[in-house]
Inverse folding.
C-alpha cells in the first residue's frame, strides 16, 4: 500500500504558480529524497503535505485518507525543519512531549513515550537540558525525537541536517537512516546535497520550477538522467549531442568528432536519423593515450577528488569529463592527447 499519494497538486502564492501539477506516490516505509535548486518548490510541497499551505488544486492522501481538509495536527505527520525550531524555554523532554500534550495523551503514557523517543536518539541522559545547552547535532536529535514521538504516518524532513558540519552531518545521516528503517516510517527528505540523497534515499525526486523533472531510484537518476537539465543538475557526467550512425555490433555510434568513440546500446526512442542526445557518467568514460601527436583529444585539466582524479579533455563540442584512478591519471597529464570511449550500455539516450 502506498503511504503518501499526491495527485496533480497546484499551489499559487497570489499570482505566483509555485507547484504546477505535482504527482507522486510513496510506498509504506520508503525514503524519498527531494532535490532541486533553491526556489523550485521543495518546502512548498512539504508544507502542502503538512497542511501549512493549501494547494488550490489536486489531492493529497496519507495512508489512503484524503487530508486536504484536515488541520496540520489531524494529519499525524512528523516534521523536522532545517533550523531546529525547538522551544527555547523548554527542556529536551518537554520539547519532545509537546506534540503529545497537544493530542491530550495521558500523562503516564506521555512520559513513557517521551523516554522511549529520547532513548531512540541517544539523548536520555540530556532530557533536562534546554536547547541552548545542547550541541547542534543534539538539538537536531531532539527535533527528530519530537517528530517521531507522535508515531507519524509520514515523516517530513526539510533540510534537517543543513546546519551541521560535514562530519556530524554524515554521522546523523546514517543514524537517521537506521532509525527510519527500524521504525519502518515513510520519510520525505529535502536536501541540497546530492551525496546525502544518494546515501539515504530509496527514491530521488528532482524538482524544477514547481514540476517534477525526474523521479527514480538513485542509481537511475545518476546513471540515466532523463533530460539534459537533470544531467546538468546532478552533474555526474557528460551530455553528448551528435548524429547517430547505422547500428553495428548491436550499438549505434554517436558522432562527437575525432578521438571519441561512443555508441548507444539502446536507441528505441531516438529518431532513426539525425541528432541525438545521450548521457554518460564520468566514471564510465575510458581514456587511452592517443597514437601520434595532434591525434585525439587534448587533456585540459586534472582535478584531484580524493579517491578519483577528474580528467577533462577538449572534444569537438566542449569538455569531456572522465574519472580515473590517481595511478591511471599519470598517463593523462595536462597537454597530453587521449582517446575516449565507454561501454555502449553506459551511454544512455536522453530526451534532450
Ligand atoms: N509565502 C509565500 N509567498 C509568496 N511566494 C512564496 C511564499 N513561499 C515561497 N514562495 C515562493 O515560492 C517558490 C518556492 O519556494 P520554496 O520555499 O518552496 O522553495 P525551495 O525549493 O524550498 O527553496 P530552498 O531550496 O531555497 O529552500 C519561491 O520562488 C518562493 O519565493
Ligand atoms: Mg526550502
Amino acid at each position: 500500500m502506498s503511504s503518501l499519494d499526491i495527485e496533480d497538486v497546484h499551489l499559487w502564492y497570489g499570482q505566483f504558480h509555485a507547484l504546477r501539477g505535482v504527482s507522486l506516490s510513496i510506498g509504506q516505509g520508503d525514503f524519498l529524497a527531494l532535490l532541486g535548486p533553491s526556489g523550485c518548490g521543495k518546502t512548498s510541497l512539504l508544507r502542502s503535505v503538512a497542511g501549512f499551505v493549501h494547494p488550490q488544486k489536486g489531492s493529497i492522501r496519507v495512508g489512503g485518507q484524503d487530508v486536504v481538509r484536515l488541520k496540520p495536527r489531524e494529519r499525524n505527520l512528523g516534521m523536522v525543519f532545517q533550523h531546529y525550531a525547538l522551544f527555547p524555554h523548554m527542556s529536551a523532554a518537554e520539547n519532545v512531549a509537546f506534540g503529545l500534550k497537544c493530542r491530550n495523551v495521558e500523562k503516564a503514557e506521555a512520559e513513557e513515550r517521551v523516554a522511549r523517543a529520547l532513548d531512540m536518539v541517544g539523548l536520555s541522559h540530556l532530557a533536562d537540558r534546554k536547547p541552548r545547552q545542547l550541541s547542534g547535532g543534539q538539538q537536531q536529535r531532539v527535533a527528530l525525537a519530537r517528530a517521531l514521538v507522535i508515531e507519524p504516518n509520514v515523516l517530513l524532513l526539510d533540510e534537517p541536517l543543513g546546519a551541521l558540519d560535514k562530519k556530524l552531518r554524515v554521522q546523523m545521516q546514517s543514524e537517521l537512516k537506521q532509525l527510519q528503517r527500524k521504525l519502518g516510517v515513510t520519510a520525505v527528505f529535502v536536501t541540497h546535497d546530492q551525496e546525502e540523497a544518494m546515501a539515504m534515499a530509496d527514491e530521488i525526486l528532482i524538482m524544477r520550477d514547481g514540476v517534477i523533472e525526474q523521479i527514480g531510484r538513485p542509481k537511475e537518476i545518476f546513471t540515466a538522467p532523463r533530460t539534459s537539465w537533470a544531467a546538468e543538475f546532478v552533474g555526474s557526467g557528460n551530455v553528448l549531442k551528435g548524429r547517430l550512425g547505422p547500428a553495428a555490433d548491436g550499438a549505434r555510434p554517436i558522432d562527437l568528432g575525432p578521438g571519441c568513440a561512443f555508441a548507444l546500446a539502446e536507441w528505441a526512442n531516438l529518431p532513426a536519423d539525425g541528432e541525438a542526445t545521450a548521457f554518460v557518467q564520468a566514471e564510465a568514460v575510458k581514456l587511452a593515450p592517443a597514437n601520434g601527436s595532434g591525434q585525439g583529444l587534448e587533456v585540459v585539466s586534472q582535478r584531484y577528488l580524493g579517491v578519483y582524479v577528474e580528467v577533462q579533455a577538449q572534444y569537438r563540442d566542449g569538455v569531456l569529463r572522465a574519472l580515473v584512478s590517481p595511478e591511471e591519471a599519470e598517463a593523462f597529464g595536462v597537454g597530453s592527447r587521449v582517446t575516449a570511449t565507454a561501454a555502449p550500455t553506459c551511454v544512455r539516450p536522453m530526451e534532450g
User: Anything to note?
Assistant: The chain has two domains: 2-223, 236-349.
